[in-house]
Amino acid sequence: MRCISLLTDFGLSDNFVGVMKAVILKINPSVSIIDISHNIEPQNVFQASFLLKHSFKYFPKGTIHLAIVDPGVGTDRKAILVKTRNYFFIAPDNGVLSLTLEEESPQEIIQIDNPKYFLKPVSHTFHGRDIFSPVAGYLSRGISIYNFGKPIKKIKKIHFPKPEIKKDKLYGQIIYIDNFGNLVTNISKDTFLGFVRKRKFVLRIRNKIINRISTSYQDSDKKETIALFNSFDSLEISIREGSAKEALKAEISTPIEIIIVK
Amino acid sequence: MRCISLLTDFGLSDNFVGVMKAVILKINPSVSIIDISHNIEPQNVFQASFLLKHSFKYFPKGTIHLAIVDPGVGTDRKAILVKTRNYFFIAPDNGVLSLTLEEESPQEIIQIDNPKYFLKPVSHTFHGRDIFSPVAGYLSRGISIYNFGKPIKKIKKIHFPKPEIKKDKLYGQIIYIDNFGNLVTNISKDTFLGFVRKRKFVLRIRNKIINRISTSYQDSDKKETIALFNSFDSLEISIREGSAKEALKAEISTPIEIIIVK
Amino acid sequence: MRCISLLTDFGLSDNFVGVMKAVILKINPSVSIIDISHNIEPQNVFQASFLLKHSFKYFPKGTIHLAIVDPGVGTDRKAILVKTRNYFFIAPDNGVLSLTLEEESPQEIIQIDNPKYFLKPVSHTFHGRDIFSPVAGYLSRGISIYNFGKPIKKIKKIHFPKPEIKKDKLYGQIIYIDNFGNLVTNISKDTFLGFVRKRKFVLRIRNKIINRISTSYQDSDKKETIALFNSFDSLEISIREGSAKEALKAEISTPIEIIIVK
Lengths: 262, 262, 262
Fold this sequence. Notes:
Strand content of chain A: 25-35%
Oligomer: homotrimer
Number of strands of chain A: 16
Radius of gyration of chain A: 21 Å
């Protein structure tokens, strides 16, 4: 059974997500639809890009990933269909696929513009229903990608803040905060280990100092602030049985620094 | 594969929705269940009626729509099963199907009262689990609608506030607010265009004046209040990359008026 | 089609739930996955235990229930797979299965420790993805439970506060609050009826006095506080078309007493 994943900022209060699924099932009744998340902050293309990067590869080969965070709906921003070695991606051309396509490079990019596969009339405000879902439905039935439009070469990219190394200091920041209030940094496990090696370090965030990497969320006293490597393979700041977000009053972009101690 | 849609005010924190799906799958394991929404405001039959009207027709023919916003559960309000040309609807008889059945007229209405198809004992507080879901499950297996109860002629209707025209003014109001804070009015695109024709107009909501219809959410400066036709084919008030609900302190029933300018 | 249920505290904002489903479908594409809830309060094993108890038996025979509220992830707490007469349960060994296994006794308990069925590398923070989901996926394909680890005899139990009877008084407390603000007590219908028999009683919660059991949520004037037996077969405090939680400022552990009137 073919799988389609959905990632949007539509929320779960309106009928938007249900209607998209209805449109897909009307075209292909034997598809499995999996929600990655619909609670992306409205119009936050970065957040969606981050979650897609950390989700796509867990899905069955051939999965069609729809990522619809689309502040430009109804304007002349393109709609794209990207084929990679293992997956298909359908999205507005606004960079939401950026981080993913760094890991899984495009074999073909199609600019979706064949109205044969759209719902009519196409609204100016809900291409998720009128364009993206029907295209995903037909693609899941085996329609060739070249039927949906013409190949193009370039798509829009967005860039995440990269960590910086200056002498004996590594500067990063919080780029994602999860449901538990855990603070995900832009410092990967590899970057951290490559920088620190076997040297002593202190990690500073807000007014907290941490000087070791914990091995689990409970590797600490209660309410202690800890650092550990999370399931995204990133450095994460956490508090045992508490919310680091609230305790540290941290938010997206809150800086973090790691300093080598001599 | 037969499709069943769910629309409730049960929320997603309790086990109510999961248990309804379990009951359905126990009776018919090969059905697709799609959530329209479970975040209807508690007991808000109007809101559910609005979302059902704007969702049902996107589903595959033969879909069984369950709409359970049911403040009268456990009283003598009826449970009904409505067959239309393309769909089945199962709901408490409280008007939640009103707007939908104006578009898709009933061919047969059954008062559900055959306990053979209920879970036992039937609770006084959760007919979603004990009556509506098992009936949907058996219906999806092809049981005739006449097995569930006797045909009746009349069901309860609720009425939405209609827009009013007085000379050169069109008066409407906000009837739905979406996840993005967009304000959906009770003025359809057709009503608006029929009233305004090619004349100049100003639209007033709260202290804002708008004098044109935008073609997309980005057809404006940032933070500007705009009017456009949305995917419900209604007149909608929106703010680019912001929440019109918050900016205008608007709510359900907030008035809006369109005045022809001479 | 085999059914897998999910009950977690992961919330629906991150990609955690979607990724677990992806992992399962990659192993067994023809499984039905049903969400019981993902909005368990972070780390609240009691709440999850309560909802699982009131959900599991509505699912088709053979369903694999995953209950992942796991503050001890990454420590040496065990991962367990329990086979009962009708179901399978997969969970961290922290008591989350306690209430359920009082009703549906274990036929076999396996300590999951065979890495052959894990995703690699196993993270220290997300065994839902790396251990529990793949084990559920393989189990749903018919792999014998003995392949996942060795049988053990004892698992961790947690205990819910039991109601107490002292002479002519029955003392209980609120143990769950639902989406509507209804207050679920730890007093079962049987306990209540066995205690009260046909005698007159008054029920006291906060500053409210109730002296009868209502038959439905609407068996009262609007905004009146009532007591009734809910779909969990427990005594519940409710307010017609309102939130008892808010009106009474009640919370988990708020006491309730029933006093026989002479």
